[in-house]
Amino acid sequence: MKREYYKRVPTLVLAAGIFAMSGCSSSSSSTADSGSSSTADSGVTSKVEPSATPTTLRTPATGTSLEKAAKDTIYFCQRGPIKIPPLTRPSSTWVEGDAVVVSKIPFVEGSVKVDGKFEMTTTATERALKGNGLPNHPIGTFPVQSGTAAYQYYSALPAMGYKNAAEIPVGAYDINLTLPRNPKVNAAPTCIQWIFTGVVTQTGAAWHVDIAIDSSNNLLDPISALPMDQCWGHPYATQYHYHGYSWKCFPNQGEQGKHSPLFGYAIDGFGVFGPRGEDGKLVTNADLDECHGHTHKIEWDGEVKEMFHYHVNNEYPYSVGCYRGTPIELPHHLQH
């Protein structure tokens, strides 16, 4: 993105997970949810059950507000005097009405290995997540290659420091976060201030909020506007991260007919689980609250507890829509 573009929209461009891209595949150290640190095998492949594989995702309508906590949207913090505009639904070839048609997405091609590092440790009260942001699975080829189906979408976007967004690579960066091990639900939801919303402990990579901005200052659902790689990820400021229904490359998808396993943690400390709920059926937004979660008994650090948790599913905002707990203060390099 050009520097003068930042000056025009200083309070909104920081939500633009759409603008920076690059890819690779990895040998990452991940850890189990036991709290002790361990190392995952490289190139882990997941077995995704057919019933959990979406053919479409539900994207938000034009005019969807980001100004308050509500189902089917994101509660994004107001920054500065510029009013946050509502979302716009783009006219991408893979969007039909409110559906993102997965088979029509021109995914970023390639299968590149990256040297991912990740570990999780716990104390009685805290959970420490440390890694280099690179996942334990292959990701698309970044910079996006000229002549591939995805190139036209990336090359049309400006990117500060690059000729265009297609030229941006993926790189390692520092994840060193300490979360509460037993987070508490607050009386009112907290808005999302930064695009970094959580860590996928199954892979070592991050979730970003599902908001992007295009060169015309429209706010968009990233997956309806820009093709990701086959793992539903791409980079922003060279930082690889996931958008949308990021199910495909997580090594533990769980078992059909049972509640999904833990995928990772939001930055308020609450767990983010897969798409199946307490009865083993796929959760819809109707099953979840305004922050995209709910409360019932789950497995938590080896014990069964009744507590709040988030879910990923195939309806916008796909994962965390606001925080039910108190988000930690992120280090400066993650405050995009």
Describe this structure in words.
- By secondary structure, the chain is mainly β.
- It has one domain (1-327).
- It contains 3 helices and 16 strands.
- The strands form 4 sheets. Strands 11-12-8-7-13-14-16-15 form an 8-stranded mixed sheet, with no helix packed on it. Strands 1-3-2 form a 3-stranded antiparallel sheet, with no helix packed on it.
- The protein is globular and about 50 Å long.
- The chain starts with a helix and ends in a 25-residue tail after the last strand.
Strand order of the largest sheet: 11-12-8-7-13-14-16-15
| Order of secondary-structure elements | HEEEEEHEEEEEHEEEEEE
Level of helix content? under 10%
SS strand fraction:
15-25%
Structural class: mainly beta
Strand segment count: 16
Distance between the termini: 14 Å
Task: Please tell me the overall pLDDT.
Answer: 86
How many strands, what sense, and barrel or not for the largest sheet? 8 strands, mixed
Tally of DSSP helical segments = 3
| Global Rg | 18 Å
Shape category: globular
> What low-confidence regions span 5 or more consecutive residues with pLDDT below 50?
1-46
Summed up, the domain count is: 1
